Amino acid sequence: MNNYAKWFSRVTWLGIMVNMLFVIFSCFFPEFMLWFLKMHQPDPIIWVRTAGMLLFIISAFYIPGAIDPYRYQATAWISIFPSRAFGSTFFICAVFFFGQDKGFLSIAFVDLFFGVIEAIFLTLALRSENAEAIAKEPVKQFS
């Protein structure tokens, strides 16, 4: 694995760990999380816990791409687009266009940050890998 792929993997794992913080607080301490983010508490509170469990499931799908972004290229890209891209877009629009609590911006900025960094590293990793593959190909002679 080249350095870009290694950094993609590291950033993806870090993003999974950050997601797990949201998962833990959403599932086990939803009132505290909502208070900390200055968000309204829905009734029933199970919707916060449900969102946490869905984030857990989504994050699990990031793991194959984090382990080997070359072998699991599709999974690596899906962890960025649509996952991180749509997540950040959804919450930014929810706050600025639909009047939702500003606490949702924390979720949007986490997705935006990790999505942009992961996209840069994955693009560079795959370009580097393609350049190495082309360089190793034998030159074909035309006669």
Structure, explained:
The protein is an all-alpha fold and 143 residues long. The protein has one domain. 77% of the residues lie in helices and 0% in strands. It has six helices and no strands. It has helices at 3-28, 30-36, 46-60, 63-67, 73-96, 104-136. It is elongated, with a radius of gyration of 19 Å. The model has no long low-confidence stretch (mean pLDDT 94).
Produce the secondary structure layout.
Layout: H1 3-28, H2 30-36, H3 46-60, H4 63-67, H5 73-96, H6 104-136
Q: Helix share of residues? A: over 70%
SSE class? mainly alpha
**Rg calculated over all Cα atoms:** 19 Å
Secondary-structure element string: HHHHHH
What composes the largest sheet? none
End-to-end Cα distance: 37 Å
Strand content: under 5%
Count every helix, treating DSSP H or I runs of 4 or more residues as helices. 6
Q: Structurally, how many domains make up the residues?
A: 1
- Contiguous uncertain segments of 5+ residues: none
Number of separate strands: 0
CA-based shape: elongated
How would you state the average pLDDT, rounded? Answer: 94
Give the structure's gist in a few sentences.
With 143 residues, the chain is mainly alpha-helical. The protein has helices at residues 3-28, 30-36, 46-60, 63-67, 73-96, 104-136.
Task: Name some characteristics of this structure.
single chain, about 140 residues, mainly alpha, 6 helices, about 0% strand
